Amino acid sequence: MFDIHVSTGHWPFRPIPGQSIPELYEYLRGFGISGAAVTNTNGLFYLNTQAANLELAEAIKAYPEFFVAVASLNPAYAAAERDLEFCVEKLGFRALRLTPLYHQYALAEASAVIRLAGELAIPVIVPNEIVNFRQKHWMEPSAPLGLEAVLGLCREFPGVNFIFTEGTAAPDGAYPPNLYFELSRFRSSYGGALTELIRNVGADHVLFGSGAPFKAAESSLLKLFHCDITDEERRLTGGDAARALLYR
After folding, report:
1. What is the pLDDT of residues 112-140, one digit of tens each?
2. Beta bridge partners of 122
3. Domain of 24: which CATH number?
């Protein structure tokens, strides 16, 4: 299994247990997860987000076969494109995360760095939110980003793959082929909605993510293993699709 959505680093608004890379490794391995794409939460708050990427690269050195690094960058920062090239070409990062609500920029300002991500053949992860806005600290964004914003990016950059995390979608909607969903905040599998989404967009376009350490992994595991899908579909959603997307 491969987890597309985990993070390390400090969360300033409340204590989050198990934030360190060694703790996260042991936690995920305890559920049989054999790899994870990880981003550094510090990148949401540092003035220069590249400092968080350098921290992340150092922290995961001891786990080269497990963790895949995701760069955190602010496109409004003058060196963002240079920093992305360095992360991918020198440090081996395999994805980019954009957080316009936290860095306070319009997605139109991210065009250059998104275009570069496409040239570097890495997916762009766009979270709907970091924590649910109904329980947020007053300094956090007051509302989620929304799927429509990411759909706009998919249409504008058809050659770039986008992963929508921490959000939901209508299971029977029409979605572009370069849009991928992460299931940690998707509705429970018991109503059949997750099964319907997987059948609609394909098991290779719905990716297992736990949201650890912000959320417990059990919830996402229950969604995956109680979904009415085939073993092959479960393998794709459970990890094979994410690995194929990251190791293009």
Report:
1. 999 999 999 999 999 999 988 887 888 89
2. none
3. 3.20.20.140
- In this structure, which amino acid lies at residue 4? I
Phi, psi of 89 (to 5 degrees): -80, -30
CA angle centred on 127, ends 123 and 130, rounded to 5°: 140
More confidently predicted of 175 and 226: 175
Q: What is the pTM of this model?
A: 0.97
Count of Cβ atoms closer than 10 Å to residue 22 Cβ: 12
Owning domain of residue 10: 3-246
Residues 121 and 94: beta-carbon distance below 8 Å: no
- Dist. CA 7–CA 113, nearest whole Å: 22
Closest by alpha carbon to 46, among 67, 14, 71, 17?
A: 71
- Please count the structural domains in the chain: 1
Q: Which amino acid is at 5?
A: H
> Number of C-alpha atoms within 13 angstroms, CB side, residue 134?
0
Q: Assign 3-class secondary structure to 186-242.
A: CCCHHHCHHHHHHHHHCHHHEECCCCCCCCCHHHHHHHHHCCCCCHHHHHHHHHHHH
